[in-house]
Amino acid sequence: MSDSTPQSTRRLGRSGLSRAAETVVRTTIAVSGWTTILILAAIAVFLFMSGMRAMQEVGLWSMLTGDSWFPTSKNAQFGFLPSIAGSAWVTLVALLLCVPLGVASAVFISEFMGKRGKEIAKSIIEFMAAIPSVVLGLIGLAILAPWVRTTFGTDTGLTALAAGLMVGFMCLPTIISISEDAMHAVPNELRQGSAALGNTRWQTAYKVVVPAASSGIFAAVMLGLGRAIGETMVVLMLAGNAGIIPSHPFLSVRTLPGTIANELGEVVRGGLHYSSLFVMGLALFVTTFLINLAADMILERQRRRWRR
Amino acid sequence: MSGSARIRRARASEAMAKTVLGACAVISLGVALFFVGYIFFRGAGSISWEFLTEPPRKFMIEGGIYPVIIGTVYLTLGTALFALPIGVMSGIYLSEYAPRNAMTRTIRLAIANMAGVPSIVYGLFGVALFVGVFGWGRSIIAGAATLACLTLPVIITATEEALRQIPNDLRQASLALGATKLRTVARVVLPAATPGIVTGSILGLSRAAGETAPILFTAVAFFAPIATSPFSQTMALPYHLFIMATQATKQAPHVVWGTALVLVAGVSILNVFVAGWRSGQRRKMRW
After folding, report:
1. Hey, are the CB atoms on B21 and A105 less than 8 Å from each other?
2. A260 touches chain B (CB under 8 A)
């Protein structure tokens, strides 16, 4: 019986060519799966290599702790502290604005809005994230900077405050959408249980949902922080780029990304100044990398907790 | 008595919380809409057929921004050429092939992390690698490669998510008919997931089109003619806007706001188009 089946006359399996083609394609796919790791590693390597000269001649520690930045004067000084302090002020203002506003908005969208409203809110948030930062910088120049100057009587509107407020707005989509996701992931049984015990929606929100989603909300705040530190165009246009170490946010400040963007165009390729800007970039990269890594790990753990 | 007082208090705080939280949400979302409205209000007067189709004259303060628009189109197309093949394949790998192990988790962490790398850091990377080591100089191709790095995580995530929505029944049916895994992916899974991949990628690319910091030192010039090769420098909307708003010697507000409007309108149209198309597709295909 077995020798009379049609199989015996048919070619078994596929041709070698088709097998080879499949192997090639499958390998290509697997390799491209690794590109992201490759690119991240390449970023670190190239920033490090390009910053090598400055790190050898000036020293990493004296750059990170140096309090003056005069890269073009005869006795060139490459201290990052003015930029670090400026970034810190801008980030602080941004977080003070976007954390309360963002988390409150997320609670409202997640716990008080209907299905249709949620969809609309989400597409507005997606759209917010798509507004180019240079456009926000322009709006800041037109509205925010004059407002800061007249309201607080500063010499110029281009201050850490103006930049911080706009950067805070830029972080809103990140904070809102990720904390909303975190609250959305909280199982409905918990809400129903809370309602059955006689809690109102608000009581359910702050006694049950927010605590259950707290690690996700925390991660959202950290991702917002990472975004705030790294934002470039808004701080370049609004922070004023002054050279001093600022003691309050009503001053013009320089920031890490702003300094890089401001000066990289004018430096000699491979020179000490050029190299020191790469060290600054490396510092920025390492900081945001660690912040994002921590936030992503928190999110990953939370996802696994609710999946079960 | 005390019970009803507690209920009254709970109701009052409920109403209060709802008002405050609602106000926060309205402010957050309203500011975004206000900004866009403001751009339209300030920029609408500059938009004319001449503004969109003529090259600039008299040191940019007269004429149009045609080469600037074309420059951004070229940069964005270049970004798509780099990022789409790698991003889609990477998404396919993660959704269809990747084993569930620590290595895959590391790849996922890397993708999430890449999305948070500051744009100026990508700019530095592009200067060091594409402009320097590869010797591409300041050019469209160097700028596009830099923007592609930044867009990659968006495209990968969109692809993976779109593929995950395809029910396993489809895959199993195809495999049961004797198709190989690759054939199943190419002929069954990928076509079904195309709408999701396309919309996600367009969103990512529209964001790349608005980025300034990554192209600042890798691609753009204050003035450049329309590019004739991928190795020419180019003008681009975000950079033009930046330079005209902050560093131009002669102020030309109508050019600045007109450029801003063209940029925002381009991004908005893409976003609205994508949102509409996606909800249409979602209604059509229900698993």
Report:
1. yes
2. yes
Rounded CA separation B285/A200 (Å): 38
Q: Do B113 and A296 touch (CB under 8 A)?
A: yes
Separation CA A60–CA A56 (nearest Å): 8
pTM across the whole model: 0.91
Three-state SS letters, B79-113: HHHHHHHHHHHHHHHHHHHCCCCHHHHHHHHHHHH
The ipTM (two decimal places) reads: 0.91
Give CA–CA dist B196/B274, Å, rounded. 10
Contacts of A289 in chain B (CB under 8 A): 113, 116-117
Q: Which of A25, A111, A120, A131 to mutate to test the interface with B (most CBs of B within 10 A)?
A: A131
Task: Report whether A231 contacts A212 (CB < 8 A).
Answer: no
User: Which of B29, B97, B125 lies at the smallest CB-CB distance from A124?
Assistant: B29
Contacts of B263 in chain A (CB under 8 A): 132, 134-135
Q: Does A293 touch chain B (CB under 8 A)?
A: yes
CB contacts, 8 Å: B31 with chain A: 169
Reference A237, options A93, A97, A130, A90; nearest CA is: A90
A residues 122-141 near B, CB within 8 Å?
123-139, 141
Contact B11 A261 (CB under 8 A): no
What H or E segment, with its residue span, contains residue B56?
strand B56-57
- The DSSP call for residue B117 is S
**Can you give the pLDDT of all 287 residues of chain B as single tens digits?**
567 888 888 889 999 999 999 999 999 999 999 999 999 999 998 888 888 888 888 777 777 889 999 999 999 999 999 999 999 999 999 999 988 888 898 999 999 999 999 999 999 999 999 998 999 989 999 999 999 999 999 999 999 999 998 999 999 999 999 888 888 999 999 999 998 899 889 989 999 999 999 999 999 888 888 888 889 999 999 999 999 888 766 678 888 999 999 999 999 898 888 878 877 776 666 55
